Amino acid sequence: MSERYDPQLAEPKWREAWAEADLFRALPPAEAGDAPKAYVLEMFPYPSGRLHVGHVRNYAMGDVVARHKKAKGYNVLHPMGWDAFGMPAENAAMERGVHPGTWTYANIAAMKAQFHKLGLSLDWSREFATCDPEYYGEQQRLFLKFMEKGLVYRKASKVNWDPVDQTVLANEQVIDGRGWRSGAVVEQRDLTQWFFRITDYAQDLLDKLDTLERWPEKVRTMQANWIGRSEGLQMRFEWACPAPEEFEAGIDIFTTRPDTLHGASFIALSPDHPLTEALAGRDPDLAAFRALCAQGGTSEADIEKAEKIGFDTGLRVAHPLRPGETLPVWSANFVLMGYGTGAIFACPAHDQRDFDFARKYDLPVLPVVRPSASAPAADPADGLSWVVTGAGEEMTEAYTGPGTIMKSGDWDGLSIDAAKSAAIEAMSARGLGSRTVNFRLRDWGVSRQRYWGCPIPVVHCASCGIVAVPAEALPVRLPEDVSFETPGNPLVHHPDWKTTTCPDCGGEAERETDTLDTFNDSSWYFARFASADDREERAYWLPVDQYVGGVEHAVLHLLYARFFSRAMRDVGELDLADGEPFAGLFTQGMVTHATFRAGDGRWLQPAEVELHGGQAIERATGQAVTVGPVEKMSKSKKNTVDPDAIISEFGADTARWFVLSDSPPERDVEWTQAGVEGAARFMQRVWSLFRSLSLPAADGLAEDEAASLDLRRVAHKATRAIDSAIEEFRFNSAIATMHDWVNQMKKAEQIGESVRNARLESASMLARCLTPFVPHLAESCWTLIGQPGLVSAAPWPEADPAFLVEDSVTLPIQVNGKRRAEIAVAKTATPDMVEAKALALPDLAPHLEGKSIKKVIVVPGRIVNIVVA
RNA sequence: GCCCGCGUGGUGGAAUUGGUAGACACGAGGGACUUAAAAUCCCUUUCCUGAAUCAGGAGUGCCGGUUCGAGUCCGGCCGCGGGCACCA
């Protein structure tokens, strides 16, 4: 038996043993007996071709949870698959002429081999790729069910259009107003697109966030902000001038500040408002204004820089509460068509945007809220001067704080909240409006003009319109013979794929050429893992008990999946009462690395750099290297680390151990060579510990009972601490405990044979605690001390409560809150006994001399504090 | 601008309900073993003061408060990170 542990020999051997024993296959519900179920899932990867270290961290975390649950007696489902549709495959096709499917499946094979080397406890029997026709066929069936239920619709919407690639781009793909691939200036186009009615569930998606107790607060907040509920008044302003054609009824607006209605000074319409559009048809100047507004980019930076511009339409509406007063109707670029009604009433005194606009166009500023109830209306000490007309020189910004209503007739003296209610009541009574809730959340546009995605399973028939593809004709398969020569959607250019017949009338028809946004694919894969087609088995496994993935999916993926499981439930496809797919969520941090830059500005790979003390030197040239900030690993900065290289050099266990140690899982961890070497050293240290126990025992030595008891205490306490640390996702703490445990075992090794039995017991427990983290090493150690079978199949060690409590405790003694001494007392000592013993301590005499004791606080088992004066 | 989160040694971090601040690890320094190196093992490592394995003082971003006792709770600042953002 070798003195050194060799992961290259041991790791493949144990993986074979696990495969042979079929250890990680989830049991069907009927075979699970009394075992409770645990569905552990990590976000499945996009098959880019290479695993990166971030994946290693993500999957190592999931594996700790899955293996721990298994050891605790759960029937565990821990599957893996591939999020396989998407742009990179098409890019590869365009750049290298390889078919997206060929490229994707080759990548899957390569990555699966890498996955295998990590020793994860995955049930590969449920593997699939979302580009498998069986998978996307099922997705098409769901799409049609949603359509039947009215959850799908088509409408024209503005999209980012790349005129070179001839495709729609997501907002993330538009960089500084240009397409990320082509570099062409992106245009706004109106296209008819498919949408999912996610907004139907807006309220429920918001409400149920409160029930997701095992989700990070941060993610819940982000989703709540994204859904963006706001309550207010939707009301109508009626004309005080000849009404424009087709808009005779007036203008509907939405406001969250109905309390400021008396301070209204103008109406602002979005440039995209139907009324603006209609008026522009007759007024070239307004048309030019609209064109000007459309020019601005959609990026955040553009919006921030954009100056407020407006156009006076010349129309006027009546103020509903101030007889005889009228308000001008403007079109303004800061009003969005996509929110509320696309029109607002502006109260410049109490809204900064309205204020800026009013200043620019010399519109009235009419304050109707004063900051404090007591201050007289015209008191300059209020910080506001109550200018009623003109440009409001005295106000430098809008007042949006709390206060009391004034200059508002009956509402004077009311609080803002009371005035809001009064306004809503008043408008309801006049039949002009009502309380309304608005959401920031928009319906989900799912159309993509792409080849490598799930085809939308409908046909367009000249006489029947849009017709669903019948169930027996699913899946609608992507054509294999496809060309990427022409820019744009290959499905449109394909010679005959889209040509078909109408399922209803049998006449000529065309297939829909849009494919589904790839977020659809990841919105229900967890249900598919639970079972391909058995609803009861899906009900058994769902919801996912522990989901693990990156925080970058906090909104989109996690929100879409929550929508999908509700929609699936409502079309009778899923038995999930509250519609929540993920009961527990953990978002892990990234793996970062220092960046290195040569004198001439080239980025250098970590392997090209040698560190000497504080100095970094380029190996090839011997020149000094600038060590840059620690950043997320990226190819452009060359600060990536290849997991394969690490595994070949140190083994998978070392890589797993390193990415879980030191930093708390939710935080970023910095990859360092020294840290990896430290992890590798620890593997050897553990190995030597077990090896010394595998040597033949010396005879005839009496047992050292006190030392044995100490060691057993260490083992049982550590087991307990590791157990709860894993359950609470404090893997770094679990690892610190194991370090400490091993240090204690090393000390016991020096004591030797007289504590052999305790060392063996401790080692057996340690091997089982190590298993979720470093399973291969744990197997080798388990075998080394003669334990039967596989430790991966062994139950979690029981911590005996008898060893968790000490007979005596060491209490710190404070005088006026400062620690001055400590005493050892029996666990059973009463506070009085502790107090008496503490006061008698000679160490304390100098601190008590000449002072009177006012109080003695004894917290049993914790601390003694003597208060003196 | 709005909404979250976080500030602890040279570094990553620990301290779970207010109860010995700095566990554990990395790095650094010193030592043992060795012909030498690797490997391994041992010691030191928050700061300041002192006749210095001891004693005293300070210390968890800053200022203040509550408490016998605050890294932890409260108020106000400062700094960093993240999310959203003409959302009416």
How does this structure look, described?
It is a single chain. This protein is of the alpha+beta class and 869 residues long. Strands 2-1-25-26 form a four-stranded parallel beta sheet, covered by helices on one side. It has a four-stranded antiparallel beta sheet with strand order 4-3-7-17. A four-stranded mixed beta sheet has the order 11-12-10-13, sandwiched between helices. The two termini are 68 Å apart. The model is unreliable at 297-304 and 373-393 (pLDDT under 50). Helix 2 crosses helix 18. It has 25 helices and 36 strands. The chain binds one RNA strand of 88 nucleotides through helix 7, strand 9, helix 10, strand 13 and helix 11.
Rounded to the nearest angstrom, the radius of gyration is: 35 Å
How far is it from the N-terminal to the C-terminal residue, by CA? 68 Å
Largest sheet: 4 strands, parallel
Q: What share of the residues lie within helices? A: 25-40%
Oligomer: single chain
How many strand segments? Answer: 36
The poorly predicted ranges are 297-304, 373-393
The helix tally amounts to 25
- Average pLDDT, all residues: 88
Q: Overall 3D geometry?
A: globular
Strand order of the largest sheet: 2-1-25-26
- Output the structural class: alpha+beta
β-sheet strand percentage:
15-25%
